[in-house]
Amino acid sequence: MDETFDLSVDHEIAAPPEDCFDAFVALYDTEVQNEIDRAGHSASLASPLLRTRLAAVEQQKLDRYQRRYEEYIKTAKAIAAFAE
Fold first, then answer.
1. What is the per-residue pLDDT across 28-40, written as a single tens digit (0 to 9) for each?
2. Exposed e or buried b for every residue in 58-77, given b needs 16+ CB within 10 A?
3. pLDDT band of 15, cuts 50, 70, 90
């Protein structure tokens, strides 16, 4: 999958970054799903472009969650080492 969609937000939002990202991804995912619905197809029968966009959003979401998890583990280990 070579295409990456810009999921950045240019506006300041008074919420934790995770909540902002999750909300933006949900909005973008809904937008793609609405395009699929307007075309009168299920996700499996949608055009290759729409399926690619949907897959790209899902992959970016998974990548972000993986990075967040790695940060939590790193922080937990640092706290545990500090507590020793």
1. 778 877 887 777 7
2. eebbeebeeeeeeeeeeeee
3. low
